[in-house]
Amino acid sequence: MTRIVIMGGGPAGYEAALVAAQHGAEVTVVERDGLGGACVLYDCVPSKTFIASAGARVAFRDADELGIGTNDVDSTVHLPVVRGRVRGLALAQSADIRNRVQREGVRVVGGTARFCDDRTGMAAHRIAIETNTGETEVVEADVVLIATGATPRVIPGAEPDGVRVFDWRQIYDLSELPEHLVVVGSGVTGAEFASAFIEMGVKVTVISSRDRVLPHEDADAAAVLEDVFSERGTTLVKHARAEKIERDADGVTVHLRGGETVRASHALMTVGSVPNTTDIGLDKIGIEPGPGGFITVDRVSRTSVSGVYAAGDCTGVLMLASVAAMQGRIAMWHALGEGVAPIKLKTVAANVFTHPEIATVGISQQAIDAGEVPARTITLPLATNARAKMSGLRRGFVKLFCRPATGVVIGGVIVAPSASELVLPIALAVQNQLTVDDLALTFSVYPSLSGSITEAGRQLMRHDDLD
Ligand SMILES: Cc1cc2nc3c(=O)[nH]c(=O)nc-3n(C[C@H](O)[C@H](O)[C@H](O)COP(=O)(O)OP(=O)(O)OC[C@H]3O[C@@H](n4cnc5c(N)ncnc54)[C@H](O)[C@@H]3O)c2cc1C
Ligand SMILES: NC(=O)c1ccc[n+]([C@@H]2O[C@H](COP(=O)([O-])OP(=O)(O)OC[C@H]3O[C@@H](n4cnc5c(N)ncnc54)[C@H](O)[C@@H]3O)[C@@H](O)[C@H]2O)c1
């Protein structure tokens, strides 16, 4: 029986464990916090639960326009209740995952794992576990999966203290909403938290190191979000890098490179993550981490050392829960001799949970504009969609990209309140190489926002006829 040890129980680790157990391996997962990992306990699940509360407040605010008077009712945010939901849901989800994994016969050890091979080049590997109860155990494995995830990056001089300066894992500890929150960093994490606090009625300033929010996302989508931010009175400080944060009894002063300062009551640091790869004994097996400390893997999750795989955020390959889980599964299928297709990143669907949401799949507009991928494109503003009008939606759009000659769908972007749900038909089309004709001939419900997707297909099909 193949002995498999998995270091870390996040989406990469626990999904791998389920696959390995299904295929009859003897599986041990070592996790120092709780199953589900940082994804479930601190990052993805808590942030989306928090955002759900902000969304409820938005619905309340927007009701006025639809003829439902709410002026005389106060929509106060009860932060302790929100925090209770955030924590409770994360713990419940973690417990569900633990039960599921244990039901499949996986051994779960609470503790911290590191390699302790006597020398490099061994066929089997030794892993020392410092258990959470203070004992040390050494286990041998034929196959090891490193799935140790990542941790919030800390800027020296701007260390979070959990009182005035927070990272995204501590922010739920606030007992009341900040008077003025400065969000440092405008990547996906920064944009999501800025949006949630803005929608909860907090004054927000966003510090962006680039010329816009969401520098890695679709530029038109980012422009919509900036519009919403500005409408809600948010200040966006562009081309700015925070170097130091001073705190006093009343608040924080963020010092930017170049000498300017931003004053606020609290600061939230969203300046990226660093991989958890420094203390796991990589030198004992001969793995040299790549740039930024990430572990280099190929498309079936192999590292440079035989029998050792890596998956998830510690590899720096698209830092998404869905990608982590797929990398973990692929590693196990490969290790256990199953037929496996290498991971295809061009078909990954992702969503930024701002208000409105931004969902993307496949080739980006940026790659098309740069001439890297030939494509025909269409953008349909939601303002022209009947259902959007009925719901009072004025912002947002559907974009569709297809191959010039064949009309095969290669990507798309949706900006809408429920973009994460709407993007699936485009993801299905990209994954299965469907054409704009396939979309165009599909019945969508009338009236519906998804009608804009089939309409986008029709508009690109019409262009086809002119070729
Ligand atoms: C604020 C935020 C929101 C996000 N929202 C989304 C989202 O909506 N959708 C999405 O797809 N992705 C989202 N992500 C990204 C997603 O959370 C990560 O891609 C995902 O957590 C990666 O999973 P993982 O298994 O690699 O690592 P993790 O989830 O980080 O799990 C790794 C686990 O390993 C443990 N560990 C580390 N070292 C050791 C060791 N030596 N021994 C034992 N255990 C160890 C860690 O404590 C941790 O519990 C979000 C990220 C952030 C920061
Ligand atoms: N909804 C989701 O799926 C979701 C949500 C959150 C995060 N994630 C994923 O997690 C990964 C990390 O995202 P992230 O936003 O946490 O990190 P990031 O690294 O993408 O963004 C951090 C931003 O902070 C900026 N920055 C760094 N130092 C700064 C400074 N001193 N002052 C001002 N700005 C500074 C960086 O230039 C960068 O733009 C991404 O791959 C993202 O897709 C996904």
Automatic annotation (TrEMBL):
Residues 3-328 form the FAD/NAD(P)-binding domain. Its cofactor is FAD. FAD binds at K48, D313. Binds 1 FAD per subunit. Pfam families: Pyr_redox_2 (PF07992), Pyr_redox_dim (PF02852). Disulfide bonds join C39-C44. This is Dihydrolipoamide dehydrogenase.
